[in-house]
Automatic annotation (TrEMBL):
It comes from Glycomyces niveus. The keyword Signal applies. Residues 59-334 form the Fe/B12 periplasmic-binding domain. This is ABC transporter substrate-binding protein. Residues 1-26 form the signal peptide.
Amino acid sequence: MNTRPIPRAAAAAAALTAAIALSACGSDVTNTNDGGSAENVLTIDNCGREITVDGVPEAVVGLSPTQTELLLRLGLADRIVGQAQTSTAPLSEAVAGLAADIPVLSEDTPPSREALLEVEPDFVYSPTDYEFTAEQGFASHDQLAEAGVAAYTATGGCPDRRMQGTVDDLFTDLANLGAVFDAEDEAAALADEAQATLDDVESRIEGLEKPTVAQVFVEGGALTAIGAGIEYDMIRRAGGENVFGPDDPEFASFFAAQINPEALAAENPDVIVFAARDAEHEQATRDYLAQTLPDVSAVANDRIVVISGSDVYPGSLGNIDAVRTIAAGLYPEAFQA
């Protein structure tokens, strides 16, 4: 296949305990005590870096809407001093009102170094390490550390984890953030709800024949296939048989690769899954598939599943929603009741 890489464009308590132990997944937490002080000092192993948090952070920034939403659902609205990349994804109606008065630091891109440091955060939560790229004008990890800011990247978005990330990485983030913000009960409730959704999906699709699935992304007439990372695991957890995978040479170094339409036609998947930013992007992608690949089984039989682009961000509760949405598209009869 002709390709070229694209740029970076269960009880809850048990789940949390297991997540903390998963240092191989990118994060680990150690509790210490500062000379007998009542404040806990936490050391977090995140993306191969050690982050020390002395006391509960009081000035927090979510560097994308998905991160802001998770912080809000942990009950931290009164501690969030900034939100970023606000135009890239909508907050859910359940929490949007809580964010109305939170300063917007950026809309389309991560905030500049100056904009982020101006609100004097002591903790920032990001979906990937891209948000800390100094060459782009963003505050780097070193610059934030010098300013006394703990910078946490979602486990599934760590550079050394992006290719192997799974939906379960979210539980590691919930465990870490619950410990950092002294919000273990809130984190446990979110973990419990997420695990219940995954268990429900698993029980509904158990024993059913797996359809073949391709996950793609279309932008400006370019077709990209997803073959690794969290997105790949979403298809697996939803009961699909991925036609592209991490063992394919095209995905040896990056989770996505631009492909020719003929490569997708040759795989002829039963179902196509794609992420859309908004209604306009969804329609443009549907039009592209109908015009370019009308004879592919998924297109001819209108077996196309659309998920929100924000639901594929690492460290997002939407990862769980995406699994259920995909599963319902693969097995509609199993989700009618």
